[in-house]
From TrEMBL:
Highest taxon of source: Bacteria
Coiled-coil boundaries: 160-187
Regions that span the bilayer: 12-30, 247-269
Keywords: ATP-binding, Coiled coil, Membrane, Nucleotide-binding, Transmembrane, Transmembrane helix
Protein name per its UniProtKB record: Uncharacterized protein
UniProt cross-references to InterPro entries, sorted A to Z: Bact_polysacc_biosynth/exp (IPR050445), P-loop_NTPase (IPR027417), Wzc-like_C (IPR005702)
Amino acid sequence: MKRYLSEIKRSWFIIVFCLGLTTALAFLIAKHQEAYQASSIIQVTAFGNDNSPTQMSLKDSSDQATYDASELVSAAVLNYIYAHSTPLQHSGYTANDLLADVQASSGASALAAGKKGNKATSSGGTQIAITATANDQNAAVIMANEVAQGYLNYKQDLNNQALASRHKALLAQFDQLNQQIVAAEQQITAAPTNSPQAQAASANLRSLLKLRSALTTQLAVLPSQASSNLSILGYASMENTRATTNLTLLLAISFIGGILAGLLFIALISKLKSKSISAERLGEELHLTYLGNLPHDRTFASTPIQPPDTITRNIVNIGANLRLTGILPDQWQAPHAAIVLVTSIQPRAGKTSTAASLAVTLARGGFNTLLIDGNLRQASTHLTFGFSSFRPGLGDLLSTGGNLDAAVKPCPIPGIGLLPGGSPIPNSTLLGQRLPAILEHFRRRVDLIIVDGPELFDGAEASVFASMVDGIMLVVDARHTPSALLQRARELLSDLSSAPIGVVLNHSANAGIYHYFAQVSSQSLQRRRSKRASGSALLPPYLVHMK
């Protein structure tokens, strides 16, 4: 968190720039996207006149208003309104524009819209607010009023159609009754007087005449035009239109957005920095010794014992820097062989390829070198040299013992031997108990021991190896290794071992720039000065051979 705070302090100008940019954008939106809203109010009457068929309770009127508000903005209704409105057609709007620009609300939301726009209010019913939005005040007023009037016309048409259907149904019943009455009269005429048939026909005739009288009354009171409990309570006007652009809200949003954008940029920059490890940062920020770098080369992983010339030159420099920086002691010679652990903090960093290539390079330089595969869980170093078997190996020597020298496989390259990983050990404590004797045995027989160790955070084995070696080479993927992870690795190794730590940057974009010269931490530099004062040689002898 402290690192991000310091990054924010250093990059404050990014936040200022983002604030200025978002504020300018807010003013631009306010200027070019200003719109106007106008509202008209429809009243849903709760109680009609005593003779009105539209009498309803206040709750029923509220339910109807809710239904009407949702029906009003449907595609079918707005298409009807547009088709029957000459002003809307002449204004250049389409039915699809009405769908996008017209809203309807009922109840409390309608009352709020009425207070903001049209001031008309009423009691005894529920209001529906129709709000239209347009870039022009006059267009918003026309849209709101035409939609309100058009909806009343739409509902009136529906009511008239229902009334016409009712009138038609009553007439059909009236005609049917007339036919039944004529038939009953004919039955009476044909039957003998006072006969049961005549009496039944007479009773049926009286019933039919009563029904016709009731139908006649219904037809008489049926209105010529349907009534409605909807009415326009208030029309929209130019004076009641309102601008919808809220500059204060836009500025508030732009302020928050500017700060967030600035912080995002700063975090992104910090993240990119954390992924890019350089020699300077190793020494200045992480206090680690820089040994050298290796370029990104796809062929290196598959042929580490025969690397390209660019890789070979850098490996030679790394071998020299192991001594120049004090990672390993000056004297590499049996019976006091130096031991270096090659490890990494992430998978696929290239530690095995680096360890194998370093062993081959030093062997060709005249050093009798032993490469130990310390990956006891998954041995793999033997594959680099073309061996198919990894037994017997270090794991077998730790578990069951055996002839140490016989376990070493001679490699095709003179001067280098390989101790494979062997079988996995059943208990990791065996490593701490028996490894010191094994290393001491080989110290007396070779000049340099390189341990291709496991990943640092992959278990306890790497920590055990680190406590028994003279120096540690940490192979780091320069592209994808956060500085915080590298700092954590340094702290862990410093707690476990007093052995100096050097870093090799693999897949480096700057490979070849530093070449022979290393970046030395303050601790390593102090060690080198003390050795120089005592007269010890700094240049390793194999450099002379390889020149």
